[in-house]
Amino acid sequence: MGSGEVTDLLMQCRVDEETALMKLLPLVYDELRKVADNCLRNERADHTLQSTALVHEAYMRLVDQRNRNWENRRHFLSIAATAMRRILIHHAERHRAKKRGGGKKGETLFEASSVFEERAEDVLALDEALSRLLRIDEQKAKIVELRFFAGLSVEETAQVVDVSARTIERDWRLAKAWLRKEIQG
């Protein structure tokens, strides 16, 4: 199915057309699965949430939104990546509260080398740092979400953010360095 058909269905979803929502999932499922796999790739090995469950939970949250102003497939996938990130954060918070008896903040488990090349053991530390980055520089935070969580290429991210690929590369490097510094203290 073409990107145009997905865009048409996304436009129909704005007016809460149930038929459009039912037709949409099969068309975007594989891409949502890739986003979920990308998100879970950075989680601990014994994570209890699986890609399929993450896709379904995120999709349910997306279609339950009152304001469905999805512009196109990329925009939809960007919002889906954000939803998946929030689901993982909520899951991690529940896990931490249960494990540590009430949600005491633990030490970050990131390795000292690279915040993005090593598996992220502490999604909460990343989320807290990303939230701080969002307050300082919204564009860089969006780039991190799109590149790290959604797995978009530099070119795809440039299209979503509507800047040049060179700007994405520069901001991506700066955001990674800033996050590494924030997380490692």
Straight-line distance between termini = 47 Å
Please indicate the percent range of residues in DSSP E strands (runs of 2 or more): under 5%
**Main sheet?**
none
How many domain modules? Answer: 1
Number of strands: 0
| Rg over alpha carbons | 17 Å
Count of separate DSSP helical elements: 8
**Helix content percent band:** over 70%
Average of per-residue pLDDT values: 76
Give start-end ranges of low-pLDDT stretches. Answer: 101-121
Protein topology:
Elements: H1 3-13, H2 18-41, H3 51-63, H4 73-100, H5 123-136, H6 138-149, H7 154-161, H8 165-184
Helix pairs in contact: 1-2, 2-3, 2-4, 3-4, 5-6, 5-8, 6-8, 7-8
Keywords:
single chain; 185 residues; mainly alpha; 8 helices; 70% helix; globular
Describe the overall structure.
Helices cover 70% and strands 0% of the residues. Helix 2 (18-41) crosses helix 3 (51-63), helix 5 (123-136) runs antiparallel to helix 6 (138-149) and helix 6 packs across helix 8 (165-184). The chain has eight helices and no strands. The protein has 185 residues and is mainly alpha-helical. The radius of gyration is 17 Å and the shape is globular. It has one domain (3-184).
Question: Outline of this structure?
Answer:
By secondary structure, this protein is mainly alpha-helical. The chain is built from 8 helices and no strands.
